[in-house]
Amino acid sequence: MTDPHHGAPSQHGAHPRHALDEVMHAPVRFSIVATLAAAEKAEFAFVRDTVEVSDSVLSRQVATLEKAGYVAVTKGYVGKRPRTWLALTPAGRTTFAAHCQALREIAGNGG
Amino acid sequence: MIGGTGMSEYASKDAAAALDRMQRLSSTVRDGARWYVWYQLVYGCASAVLVLSIGLLERPYGVAIGSGLWCAAIAGLSVYAARQRVARRGFGRRHGFMIALWGLLYGAVLAPGTMWFPGNLAWWVPGALVVALPGLIGAYLEARR
Predict the structure, then answer these.
(1) H or E element in which residue A43 lies
(2) I need a labelling partner for B35 at 20 to 30 A (CA). Which of A18, A57, B12, B142 fits?
(3) What ipTM describes this predicted complex?
(4) N-to-C CA span, chain B
């Protein structure tokens, strides 16, 4: 199976699905990471609106991604309003690139 | 699991759908980050006004008017930037490069201009254009991305 933190196949020559990352594989988490991959940083509310989930669902999924070391969460203020910013970590970017490469191979292979 | 299938049954159509979703999400981020086009455009124009005021208006009024307008523009741009919800990947690097290039050009136009060409249109008008270029070219490139 796959090492969830590196997304590398355990066997050379295995089907590219083995290179998929288990943490990023879940649809909502994939959407969160895909959004953050195009951004340097994004506000929590922007990601919530883009991925079309509730605050609680996003919080839960972000916590999972943060625990895996893929997403960094920073909190701050703009004026008096509290803001939460999300960003992909370097490990998150690397894993997402490998995950997308595996997806391309699967899509190209016709299953 | 995507499309109700397990990892072991992951099909090419599921992968293609995921890649398609990634493209759509990237496009949404791109649209959300277009504010930086306007930021750079205003930055370029404001810096041209600053240079023209310093070079062509009588001292100390030119410096005072130019600096006043510049401070107002930078304060407005800072508030505008702080209120944005997303910044595109590579924003920090591109912004740092734009500001550093602007600083170099600003110094290269202002230092000889104030010493040898005060009030000289032939120096200050092209100089203002050169100083505006990092912002204007940056805005153009950002709009094309």
Answers:
(1) strand A39-43
(2) A57
(3) 0.83
(4) 33
